[in-house]
Amino acid sequence: MPSLGGLLKKRRTKDSQDLGKPDSQNHDGSGASMQPASHSPPQHSGTGTHENAASIDNVIHQEQQKQERVTKGKYSQEDFELQRTLGTGSFGRVHLVQSNHNHRFYAMKVLKKAQVVKMKQIEHTNDERRMLNRVRHPFLVTLWGTWQDSRNLYMVMDFVEGGELFSLLRKSQRFPNPVAKFYAAEVTLALEYLHAHQIIYRDLKPENLLLDRHGHLKITDFGFAKDVPDITWTLCGTPDYLAPEVVSSKGYNKSVDWWSLGILIFEMLCGFTPFWDSGSPVKIYENILRGKIKYPPYLHTDAVDLLSQLITSDLTKRLGNLHGGPSDVKNHAWFAEVTWDRLARKDIDAPYIPPIRGGQGDASQYDKYPEETEHYGQEGEDPYGHLFPDF
Ligand SMILES: Nc1ncnc2c1ncn2[C@@H]1O[C@H](COP(=O)(O)OP(=O)(O)OP(=O)(O)O)[C@@H](O)[C@H]1O
Ligand SMILES: [Mg+2]
After folding, report:
1. C or N terminus of the chain, fewer CB within 10 Å?
2. Which residues take part in binding ATP (predicted)?
C-alpha cells in the first residue's frame, strides 16, 4: 500500500499532457443563455448529522421539483453580487455569487481568456459550455447562463452546497462498501445519461463530484466533456474496414469513463488510487501501462470482481464498453441491492447529509482560498472575444 503522504491530500488538477490532442469542432448551435431559476429548491428536513447510517436501503420520499430553465438572454456581472471563492482549478476560479434579482446563490466559474488561449483550451472551453448547456440530469450540475467581458468568460451554475466528495473522502480516509456503492451508483447513472447523449466526460475524480444539500452527487466541471459519435463497433458498418483505433477506440471512446469509474470506486474503497506514485506523473503513467493492481484484502470479492472488469486495458473486456453497455455495470453483483429507478428519482437516502444551512449561501463545506482582487466586468481591448462565440 502506498504511503498516504501530503500529496494525496491535495486536490489534483488537470494534467496538461492530456491536452494536446486536437478535438474536432462540432457545434450544435445551442447558444442561448439562461435566466437563473425562478423555482424554489426542494425543502429538506435533514438533521445535518455527520454520522448517518451508511445504507442505501433507507428510503425517503423527497419532493421532486422540476427545474424549468427559461431562456431570456445574457447576463452580466451586474446581475450578481460576488462572494467568496469556492474552488480553483487548472484554468478557472469558481466564486459563490448571489443574484441581485431573485437573491438566490449560484456558483460562477471564471476563466481568463488569455490563459485559456495560452493553454490551448479554446476548443475545450467552448465544448464545456456547449456540453453543460445540453445536459439536464439530477446528478449533473445545471448551467443557468454565460457571458464574457474583455478579459474573462463566465458560467453561472447551481451552487452545490455540500462540498466536494474529495473532502469527505479525505476526512473519512476510505468509505465503507455501502457508501462507496451509493456514490458509484449515482455516478453510473450520470455516465449512462451522458453516454446516451453521445458525451464522454473524461474528468471523473472526487474533486469534481459535489454533494448537494441532501447528500446526493452533482458532477461539475465539464472542461473535458466532449461529444463523440457512437463508435461502438457493432453499429459502425463493415467490421473488415474499420481502423484499429476505431475497433480499440483509444482516446475518444466512452470506455475511458468506465475505466475512471473503476479508479473512483477503488479510491473510495481504499483511500488511494491504484496506480498512485509519489514520484511523478510519469511514474503513474508507467504504472497504468503496466496495469498491475494490488487489491487490499479488506475489499469485498464482488468489488474486486467489478474493479478488475472496469480497470482493464482490454477494451473487449471492459464493463460498460461491451454489448450490454451501462447495464452490464448496473447488473454487476456489487450493485445487486441498488434499486436503480428509485436511485434515479433520488428516492434513496444518502449516506451522509452535509451539515449546512440550505439556501443561505453557506459555503462552510468548501476550503478557503486567497481571494483575487481583479475587478470583473471590465471593458477595453478584447483580442480573444471572437474565439468564444457562444459566451
Ligand atoms: N457548481 C458548483 N458549486 C460549488 N462549487 C463548485 C461548483 N463548480 C465547481 N465548484 C468548485 O470549484 C472547483 C473548481 O471547479 P472546476 O473543477 O469546474 O474547475 P477547473 O479549473 O476545470 O478544475 P480542474 O482543472 O482542477 O479540474 C471544484 O472542484 C469545486 O470545488
Ligand atoms: Mg475540476
Report:
1. N
2. 109
